[in-house]
Design a protein that fits this description.
The chain has 15 helices and 19 strands. With 456 residues, the protein is α/β, with parallel strands linked by helices. The protein has four domains: 146 residues, Rossmann fold (3-Layer(aba) Sandwich); 107 residues, Transcription Regulator spoIIAA (2-Layer Sandwich), CATH 3.30.750.210; 119 residues, Transcription Regulator spoIIAA (2-Layer Sandwich); 58 residues, OB fold (Dihydrolipoamide Acetyltransferase, E2P) (Beta Barrel), CATH 2.40.50.140. The strands form five sheets. Strands 2-1-3-4-5-6 form a six-stranded parallel sheet, with helices on both faces. Strands 15-16-17-19-18 form a five-stranded mixed β-barrel. Strands 7-10-11 form a three-stranded parallel sheet, sandwiched between helices. Strand 18 and strand 19 form a beta hairpin. It is globular, with a radius of gyration of 23 Å. The N and C termini lie far apart (47 Å).
Length: 456
């Protein structure tokens, strides 16, 4: 974040409040959407804490409230507008509280203008290019007592001078790049995140080394398409794998058009990189893939799978699927079903297509009813359940290394994930949360495994 006079002013502002009230003013940041948004929200919190604010446990206690928004689907925007609308009465009762909206939704001109014109309780609106100007915007808002909007698309060097307030003590998100150049016809991300910009590998390595030194057990590398990381993503994986410590590396998202043999080799050769690849198929039909501007065919996708399975027959894949893309026929949908059965994914994240204003797909005729799309989705899930139930059985009898990440649904139970990113349920005490454990798998379902800790 940018420092200087604005930071000095805010530090003086918070110090004055602390002197008058006996406590630091508090800040509250809530992030909607993807892991990248969560990471951005942690950096915003870090910037506010650096200026003298304290983290608030709940919204009602905060002097500054910021909603970090998502724009992938229109219903995500509707949710934000609803939340902001509900705060009108709160703002009337607490007029000195600063209410801000930022992120992908705020980067859209129409949404930003709606926030400023219709939701008068909002003081600050800023997009994804303005995170580094947080101090300047707050200083202007406080000193001049006027609302601020900053959605200009401008590119600057990636800021490495940040403090990140991480709420998870053992798993950390580490963005390696920002933006997207792919322009899939259904996706708004390139329009709100801008063009691809990559962090230098030495900066990524320095952050990972620091996190591992602080005891983090899982490093999650983030990018809209990590495979197009400017300095070579497989090389980055190999570089990070040399860092000493007991930790593992995950990453997402990975675009099939850029997934290479070199990437698969790096995953399988590196001891700390998890043996799992989330590769978004979206459709198994070449015509639909072309209409989506995905720039690969179903056979191209299969070549990646075949190479990975030639090196490791049980290599783990998960994927995303869009059901009912404009113009899709039932026969084309069945091509997706057939490919899913052929590949044997451990998990699929499937969604009914919904129109996203501002994308090219939104201009296409869409004569498939919502009811029909829903029936197709159910059919897809039932098909995959049968395939994945059988495929999951390959783990039974094995011992997996599991990072335990929380309590289970029943008393005395825990949950975690193995290297293949599959949920593992087991029995154990809460002191194990955040630790690795060797777990012998005793049973499998279509979406998760059951196991017992191997006592040494």
């Amino acid at each position: 974040m940018i420092t200087g006079k604005s930071l000095e002013y805010l530090a003086s502002y918070t110090a004055d409040i602390r002197k008058r009230t006996g406590r630091a003013p508090e800040c509250y940041v809530h992030s909607f959407g993807c892991q990248q948004n969560v990471s951005d929200g942690e950096k915003l919190m870090g910037a506010l804490i650096r200026a003298g604010f304290a983290p608030a446990d709940k919204l009602d206690d905060a002097q500054i409230i910021i909603f970090n928004t998502c724009a992938v689907r229109e219903n995500a925007e509707d949710k934000v507008f609803s939340v902001i609308g509900d705060l009108k009465h709160f703002k009337e009762q607490h007029p000195d509280v600063i209410l801000g909206v930022c992120g992908c939704m705020a980067q859209e001109k129409s949404a930003a203008e709606k926030l400023m014109n219709t939701y008068r309780q909002v003081d600050l609106v800023f997009g994804t290019f303005a995170y580094g100007e947080l101090y300047e915007m707050l200083a202007e808002l406080i000193t001049k007592r006027r609302r601020v909007m900053n959605i200009e698309e401008k590119y600057a060097d990636i800021d490495e001078d940040f403090v990140q307030y991480r709420t998870n003590r053992f798993s950390a998100y580490v963005p390696i790049m920002y933006g997207c150049n792919n322009f899939c016809t259904y996706c708004i991300v390139p329009y709100v995140r801008g063009r691809e910009r990559s962090r230098k590998p030495e900066a990524v390595e320095a952050e990972v080394r620091r996190l591992v030194g602080e005891g983090y057990r899982e490093i999650f590398l983030l990018g809209q398409n990590v495979n197009s990381y400017s300095y070579g993503f497989p090389a980055l994986l190999r570089r990070l794998d040399t860092i000493e410590g007991d930790f593992r590396i995950r990453f997402m998202s990975s675009h099939p058009k850029d997934a290479t043999h070199e990437l698969i080799d790096a995953i399988l050769d590196c001891g700390k990189v998890c043996k799992h690849l989330h590769l978004a198929l979206q459709s198994g039909c070449d015509r639909i893939l072309k209409a989506m501007n995905r720039r690969y065919t179903a056979e191209d996708f299969m070549k990646i799978v075949d190479y990975a399975r030639s090196r490791r027959p049980d290599f783990s894949f998960s994927t995303d699927i869009i059901v009912g893309f404009p113009g899709e026929t039932y026969e084309e949908f069945c091509e997706t079903k057939a490919l899913i059965k052929r590949i044997k994914f451990d998990n699929i994240y499937s969604f009914v297509y919904s129109k996203r204003t501002g994308t090219k797909a939104a201009e296409l005729p869409d004569d498939i009813s919502d009811k029909q799309k829903g029936l197709w989705l159910r059919e897809l899930l039932l098909e995959n359940r049968e395939t994945s139930t059988e495929w999951m059985k390959r783990f039974v009898g094995r011992t997996c290394r599991v990072l335990i990440d929380g309590k289970g649904k029943t008393e005395g139970s825990l949950t975690g994930k193995n290297d293949e990113n599959i949920i593992v349920n087991l029995e154990g005490g809460k002191e194990l949360i955040g630790e690795f454990a060797d777990v012998r798998i005793t049973d499998s379902m279509n979406w998760a495994l059951k196991g017992e800790i191997v006592r040494k």
